[in-house]
Structure formats: C-alpha cells, structure tokens
Automatic annotation (TrEMBL):
InterPro entries: Metalloenz_LuxS/M16, Pept_M16_N, Peptidase_M16, Peptidase_M16_C. This is Insulinase family protein. It comes from the Bacteria. Residues 79-197 form the Peptidase M16 N-terminal domain. Residues 232-414, 731-891 form the Peptidase M16 C-terminal domain. Residues 1-27 form the signal peptide. Gene3D superfamilies: Metalloenzyme, LuxS/M16 peptidase-like. Keywords: Hydrolase, Metalloprotease, Protease, Signal, Zinc. It comes from Qipengyuania xiapuensis. SUPFAM superfamilies: LuxS/MPP-like metallohydrolase. Belongs to the peptidase M16 family.
Length: 976
C-alpha cells in the first residue's frame, strides 16, 4: 500500500472572481476505451492484494503489456499530470553501461519523433509548463520516470502533449551526435554532484550494500562509461528495457478519465518492444561474512575520512528484500514497525536534549531499491569520542529490545500517528493531481497497491486495536535483526580509529539503558496560565477584498480572517511582527543564526521543549519561525479543532517567552560541527558567504564562525531576542477551514491579551541595505575538487510593496535572461549543467532587491559565464526580446501563478502586511494580467533601467587557483 508519508499535502481553493476566473472545460461524455479493466475484473495493481480498491482510479492494460491508471482530479483546476515510468534504473545497467539509464533520461528530452534537437524545453514552455518544476524526470536505481504537469489544459492540448511524450518514449533519436552533445552536460552534472558528497555516497554504498548491485551502481555513472557511450551502445540499453511491458503510465487531472485513458491507448497501443523480453538482473541479497557471530553478525565496515565533514555514524541490520502480497495484515505490520521506531526515536531525542554524547540520533527502516529491507541507525557524535556516543545509542535501543514499551508510551505515539491519517481523510477532496500521479508510480516501484485515505485510516485503526506492548517488543526485535550488520563512520580525523576499532566497538556487549524511557506526564492547555486580560475589539469590518475581514484589538494587534470550506481540514496561521534582519546589530550574527533554529525549543510560559512535545501530542500544531528582510513570522498549518491551541502557543511565545539554555547550546554545537563542511564545495561556500558579500559585507548576514559561536551563551541570546519579541505591531492572518466567531473569541484571549507592543526604535526603522557596487570580482575558495567552481552575477533591483506590479514584469525579463543563459552555457559550451537566474524583490523593506544569476561549472569557465551574462544583459538593454521569446518566458509564469492562486496559502501570502500598507492589497487585483502579453518595449525599458549599469560578481574557486581574466579560446564569447 502506497506509503502515506508520500501522500499529498498541497491543497487548493477558488479565489474570488475578481482575482481569477478558472478555465471551465465543456462537459462531454467519452466512452470507455477498449483496454479499461471492467468493474468485475481485479485491476492489475490489486492482484494478490485484499487492500480495498480506490474507486476513483480507472485502470487499464494494453495487449502489448503496457499498464496505466487514470483519475479525474480538478486540483488545481485546469491541470493534468502525466507520469511515464520505465521499470529500469541504474541497477539494470551492465558494467559497461554505468550511467546509461540517467543518460537516456537526458537524451529523450534532446530529440525525439515529434521534437527536433533542443526543442523539448521551449515547446513545453510554450504549452505553459515550467522546465524543472512542471517538466522533469528522475532516475533511481529501479526506475526512470518522465514527468509533466500541464497547466491550463483542454482536450486538444492534452492530446498534443500525449503525442509529444509518446514520441519521446517510443521514438528518441539516439544518434552518435546527440550522445556526444548530451554527455558533456551529464558530466557537468556529475562534476557538480562530485567531490566530497560523491565520495561519501560511493563509500556508503560499497559498504552498506556489499556484494549487491547497489554497491557499484551510482545513478550518475562513471566518467569512463559515459565518455565511451555512443548511439549504438545507448540504443542497446534502450531496446532492452524501454518496452511496453516495462512501462506504467499515470495520468491524473481535470479531464474526463475516459479521455485520459483513450489518449494513453491511442499513442501507446501500437508500441512494440525490439528483440526478446529480458528479465531484470538479480539485485543480490545481503550476506554475512563467513564465521560471523549469528547473535551479532558484524560484516563490512568502513571509516571514511573527509577533513571538511563533521562526524557521523551509520549502522544497520540488513535483511533480504522479498516480494510480498500487499494485504491488510501486511500493512498493519508495517504500521507497527513505524510505531516501534517512533518509540525509540522519542527516547533517543530525549537523551540528546538532556545533553548526551550525540547531537542527534535516529532509527529508520526502508526497503531499499528492491535490494534489502534494512533498519538503519544514524547519529552524530558531539566529540571525537564516537565510541561513547555509539554505546549510548545502542544502550537506548537495547532497552527497547529487552523490555516492552508502556501503554502510555504507545498511546502517545499512536495519537500522533492518528492525527496524520485522520487529517488525510479530511483533506481528500482537495489533494492535488500531481501527488496522486506520483503515488501510483511510487506504488509500482515498491511493488505494492494503492489506497484511498480512508483505507489508510482503517488499517491504522485496526493496527491500533491489535497492538500490545508485547507485540511491539516482538516487532522491535525483528527490526533490529538480520543476517548481517554493516556500518560506516565519517570523520575529519583519521586518528579517530580504523575499521578494526569500529568493528570491535560494534561487537562489544552493551547493557540496556536504565533511564531511557520518558516518565508519564499529562499536560493540558486548560491548565496553562492566561496570557493576560482578554482584549477588546475596537474595529471590525471588511478588508476590502473578497470576504476577508479585518479586526483591530485595543492593544493594536490586527487580524485578517477568511473562513471557508474549500480546504477541509486545513487552517493556515501566520503571525508577523518586528523588523526582521533590520532589527539586529552587527555583533548579533551568531545569535541570529541560533535563533532561527531554537526559537520555539527554548520554550514559552511553563512549557519547555519536552512539555511542548507532550502538549502537542494528538494535535496538528506547527511552530515554524522565519526571519525576513523586514519582518519576523511564526507560521503553522493546523485544523479547526486545534486552532485555539495554535494561537495560544504563538501568542505565548511573544507574551511570555522562556529562555531554556539546552536548546541554544545544542544549536550552538550543531553550528560549530557544521562550519567546516561549508568549505567542502563551491555550493557550500555560497551558502556560507553569498549574502554577506552580496550585501557589501553586512555583518547580520554573516555565517557565524566557530570563534563567534564560542562566545555565545544563554544570557547573550536572551539579551538579543527578548526585546525583539516585544517590538513592533503584530498582524495575525488566519485563512482556511475554521469557525470565524470562535476564532475571534480565541484571538481576544491570546493576541488581544498581549501587553502593548513597544515601538521599533527609530534607528532600526531607518536602516536599509543594498547589494554591493559593481567592481572587482569577489573571490572565495573551497577545499573540494580542483574541477569545481561557482560563479554569481547580480544586478540591483527594486523592493517594496509599491513596486509589486513592476516586479512581475521584471520576473518575465528575468526568465528571458535565464533561458538565454541556459541555452548559451548548457547547449553551446557545455560549461555548466544548470545555470539559473532568479529575481529577489523584497516586499517588507524598501531596498535590497536583486537579479541573481548563478552557475556551478569548471574553473576555466567562470569568465565564460561572466562574459555571457554581460553579453545577454547588454543585448537586452539594446534590443527587446521577440514576442515568441517573451511568450516562452511569460506563459509558464502565468500558469504557475494561476495554479498557485487557487489556494489559501497564496491569498494569505499576498495580503500579509496589507493592514499597515494597503498597496499590497491594491496590487493583488488583476495580478494575472501582469503576465499576459508582455510588451517588448516594456522589457527594453526594464532592461535599460536594471541591467545597464554593471553587475556585482562573485567566484568560488578551488584553493590554490586564480581567477582567469580572459575567456578561453573556443568558448562562448562576449558579443558573439
């Protein structure tokens, strides 16, 4: 049964007509095509299963063996999601074919039966699909999946898309020329993935899957096999595996399911495989080494030394993977496994919070790529004494293996599990099409059936009724057993120990931890202190758009409310306050970083971190915290029955914050351990340094160094954050499924009861920041591979709510730049796999916006990137893009926002801040028109305004190299 954790969470609702008129398709009845399986026939995905059938799916099987599932779904309106799954991934490759499954993924987009060379991306963009998010593919060890989320669909557009995708799958052009053109792009992707992460990944695979095909088959392949690829060898792999009997097609969307099925049959019915059908290779089983102790069968272990990485330890129990009949009893067992692991992880986390020997520890289980059913334990030692951390983790698990859990422990975890399954049922009517499409291909990949939300809840309730402490103990023992135990230890210091030391530590006997279990503790919201005297409403009325209502309390807190039933079971809450990054002084950098990770874990009122966990049991509550350019925010997705408790937690954090030291110390330790890892790759250096240098070395954007972190203590943390929680007006937004009058009453007792807010200091309100001036390129260095580099170019852009409409037009110009840069760097020079350009237009401050282009590439191609970006900017400031080019850029944007705008989240986000600045509300009216038929003349005007005065640059190079000042001969040239 498809894993619930992969099920959809993103929902939708219709906005008022003044914002969006969704496309309405003409009603039409389509006959069921020939290969649809009859109602009295067991659908192919339910064979050998007693899982109740999800009646909304229509299944079919063609005579050539191709299987499909289709489903009507109008979320978001006007979209159809198509998935084509080929049952072949890296595990199906021979030794001479490593990387071919992934290479084929690229080649199918390069040229095919109905698409000429490099036409796929622009063709899908013209159809409104955004490359990368709407049009994409993935290759795993066991499958390759081609994905298309087609917006603004009608029957003709859907048929055209099915024709194009069928041509890609059935008729790719696998010529020597296309292979030669695509291999450098794949190698660029390999280069960008490579270095530390690739080495660690390979070492982990080789150790944890020793003796199996997984051990030697990284999806990206090897440089030798990729360079040796040609049209003949790639076609041989294609012919062997791209066959109808290896193909499953999933189509879900806002069209009649009979039409969806008919188009699958029309474009795939005549497909025939070439040559005889071939069975999948044997993926192998995990096997213990000869002479291993059956009670503790430690097998392969590895110590992986990487100077830039923090310490981490993984060990696991590996069992053979076997095909199962996907029955209700089987799924009850899977849920009891989940329960057993939740119990252990709760205990491991409690020990880490109390100041244990490890930063984090977690146990998990998975069926990896139809190769092994493994239980993994992963933890990060706090010091070089990893043996002590290993012993502590093993001791907690030893207790779970020796003694059954208490009923109170079980009920706590079961209540948590029930929230997810019950909420899944509540939201079933508005789950998105794309997620249903993904659910089917994922179910096929793990060789299990697919189920409706009600079935998940039914199976959970059945498991809950049957589970006992004794049965959970037995399940736990099964999870932590197997024919072989394997382990890897990543360390920056080779002196930590070798494989023999590691193996000895795993073989040592460990006693069950006597204090691993959490004492029973009942906490109720009813027993918590009031935040203050309930506030009085001083004004209440329409906000001026749709049915949004605005409420103002006598303490100055404002609230925007929209209650609706379009998203059952989902209520969004956001609280905005303060001045964001503007609020900090230069010396606060370390405390900014720690506050982001520990804001709620430091507690509130009478609730410390453990109490917060306890009181949230069985409820859907969130505690997200974010620092914006000019505001702070708390946010959560909750539900109507938990809204009052959610509002209490948020208001209490502002009105009666707590300052527990342990969460801050833990965040400090995590930041110290992670700091050196930033230097391992160009991307890591950008994560650490980009904003700091982009904004002219503004200290508040600096990533805290170990020395800065060493000076941190709880007194300094409180000194920075306490006044911030007291400052600035508070705006509360509640959108979704709830009772408005009850919410108003709760608001008066929570946010209305807060003390009067202190004003934001004048010097804080006056602060502003801008990106650095164009000048010499900022050069930073990484400690990774000599063939890896990164380049960033940035032009100053606008900011503020007053320019939102201009920002939408500038977003179109940004897409034009991005498309041109992608074509230039990827298709012409092969210098980079994924150059991209994005627009940052802050709306909660009046300065600091930017257009940023970024690429990861080889060091020699850094000047190529800068030259091409300069050329593109100069040309756009001289000559406007063509109407066709603008359509390619604007149509995906318009469709993206049209889909996004059908949800409460969009509406809430667009209106935040409008209680103090009505420009945001005015800019929302008719916003989609800003993406319709953009004017070339307007693009020219924007380019001259934002691109003509030079750009800021940053390069990240390997240590010991210098930035080239000339474009290499034969590469893309400025002015070409």
């Amino acid at each position: 049964m498809t894993d619930f954790s992969r099920a959809a969470r993103r929902l939708a609702l219709f906005l008022p007509a003044l914002l969006l008129v969704p496309q309405t398709l003409p009603a039409q009845d389509y006959p069921a095509p020939a290969s649809v399986q009859a109602e009295d026939e067991v659908p192919w995905i339910y064979e050998n299963s007693d899982v109740p059938r999800d009646e909304e799916w229509v299944f079919g099987k063609l005579d050539n063996g191709l299987r499909y599932g289709v489903r009507e779904n109008g979320v978001p309106p006007g979209q159809v999601s198509i998935r084509v799954r080929i049952d072949a991934g890296s595990l199906h490759e021979e030794d001479s074919e490593l990387g071919f499954a992934h290479l084929l993924e690229h080649l199918l987009f390069r040229e095919s039966q109905y698409l000429g060379p490099a036409e796929a991306i622009p063709r899908w963009q013209k159809l409104g699909a955004t490359f990368g998010s709407d049009t994409n593919a993935e290759t795993s060890p066991t499958h390759t999946v081609y994905k298309l989320d087609l917006p603004n669909v009608d029957p003709a557009k859907f048929e055209e898309s099915m024709m194009l995708i069928s041509g890609m799958v059935r008729g790719p052009v696998l010529s020597d020329a296309n292979v030669r053109a695509e291999v450098p792009i794949v190698l660029a992707e390999k280069r960008e993935r490579g270095g530390v992460s690739e080495r660690v990944s390979e070492a982990n695979l080789q150790t944890l899957f020793a003796g199996q095909r997984m051990a030697e088959r990284i999806t990206i392949g090897t440089e030798d096999t990729l360079r040796a690829a040609n049209g003949t060898s790639v076609k041989a792999f294609y012919d062997r595996w791209y066959r109808p009997e290896n193909t499953v097609i999933s189509v879900v969307g806002d069209l009649d399911p009979n039409l969806l099925a008919a188009m699958v049959e029309k474009y795939f019915d005549g497909w025939e495989g070439k040559g005889p059908s071939v069975d999948a290779p044997d993926f192998g089983d995990p096997v213990a080494p000869p002479g291993a102790d059956p009670a503790n069968p430690v097998g392969d272990v590895a110590v992986i030394v990487e100077p830039t990485l923090p310490r981490s330890f993984t060990y696991g129990y590996f069992r053979p993977w076997r095909q199962v009949n996907d029955t209700i009893i089987y799924n009850e067992g899977r849920l009891e496994e989940q329960l057993a692991l939740l119990l252990i992880n709760r205990r491991l986390e409690a020990r880490a919070r109390a100041g244990g020997s490890y930063l984090y520890a977690q146990a998990s289980e998975d069926k990896f790529s139809r190769s092994t059913h493994a239980t993994l334990v992963q933890f990060a030692p706090l010091t070089d004494d990893w043996q002590a951390a290993l012993a502590d983790v093993r001791a907690v698990i030893a207790d779970a293996l020796a003694n059954p859990p208490t009923r109170e422990e079980m009920e706590r975890e079961l209540d948590e599990m029930e929230v997810g399954y019950a909420n899944y049922v509540e939201q079933r009517s508005v789950l998105p099409a794309a997620n249903f499409a993904d659910d089917l291909v994922n179910a096929v990949d793990i060789r299990e059936a697919i189920a409706a939300p009600e079935t998940f809840l039914m199976v959970f309730n059945s498991m809950r009724d049957k589970a006992t402490p004794e049965s959970v103990l037995e399940t736990t023992r099964d999870l932590f057993s197997g024919p072989v135990i394997r382990a890897t230890y990543v360390t920056p210091n080779a002196a930590d120990g070798d494989e023999n030391v590691l193996r000895t530590a795993l073989l040592e006997r460990v006693d069950a931890a006597a204090n691993a279990r959490l004492a029973a503790q009942t906490i109720s919201f009813d027993d918590l202190p009031a935040i203050g005297e309930p506030g009085q409403i001083v004004s209440r009325g329409p906000h001026g758009i749709g049915d949004v209502e605005r409420i103002v309390f006598d303490n100055g807190v404002t609230a925007l409310l929209q209650a609706n039933s379009f998203e059952p079971g989902r209520t969004l809450v956001k609280v905005r306050f303060g001045a964001g990054y503007l609020a900090f002084d230069p010396e606060d950098a370390a405390y900014i970083q720690l506050g982001q990770s520990s804001m709620f874990s430091t507690g509130l009122g009478e609730l410390g971190q453990e109490e917060l966990d306890r009181i949230r049991t069985g409820r859907k509550l969130g505690l997200d915290f974010a620092i914006g350019d000019g505001t702070f925010s708390f946010s959560a997705q909750t539900r109507r029955q938990d809204l009052a408790d959610q509002l209490y937690l948020f208001a209490a954090k502002l009105g009666m914050p707590r300052w527990d030291a342990n969460p801050v110390l833990r965040s400090k330790a995590a930041a110290q351990l992670a700091y050196e890892s930033y230097a391992a790759t160009p991307g890591g250096v950008l994560s650490r340094d980009l904003n700091y240098f982009l904004y002219d070395e503004l200290e508040v954007f600096r990533t805290a160094t170990p020395d800065m972190l060493a000076a941190v203590d709880i007194e300094g943390y409180r000194e920075v954050w306490e006044p911030i929680l007291e400052q600035g007006p508070v705006e509360v937004l509640i959108f979704g499924d709830y009772d408005k009058e009850q919410a108003v009453e709760v608001l008066s007792k929570t946010f209305g009861a807060l003390p009067d807010r202190k004003p934001i200091p004048a010097e804080v309100a006056a602060r502003a920041y801008e990106i650095g001036d164009a000048g010499e390129t900022v050069v930073r260095f990484h400690k990774g591979e000599a063939n890896q580099a990164a380049a960033v170019i940035a032009w100053p852009a606008g900011a503020g709510r007053g320019g939102i409409r201009e920002s939408r037009q500038l977003a179109i110009l940004t897409e034009v730049i991005s498309n041109r840069l992608l074509d230039s760097m990827r298709e012409r020079s092969g210098a980079s796999y994924s150059p991209s350009v994005r627009l940052d237009w802050p709306t909660d401050v009046e300065s600091g916006g930017s257009i940023v282009g970024l690429a990861q590439l080889q060091p020699k191609d850094v000047p190529v990137f800068f030259a091409e970006a300069d050329r593109i900017a100069r040309e756009l400031a001289e000559t406007p893009p063509t109407a066709e080019e603008l359509a390619r850029a604007a149509e995906p944007l318009r469709n993206y926002y049209e889909r996004l705008s059908s949800g409460n989240y969009f509406f809430m986000t667009e209106l935040e801040g409008s209680t103090t600045d009505p420009r945001r509300m005015r800019a929302l009216r008719g916003f989609l028109q800003d993406y319709v038929n953009p004017s070339p003349e307007r693009m020219l005007e924007l380019a001259q305004r934002y691109l003509a005065d030079g750009a800021w640059r940053m390069a990240v190079l390997p240590e010991g190299q210098e930035l080239a000042t000339r474009v290499p001969s034969g590469a893309a040239q400025s002015g070409r």
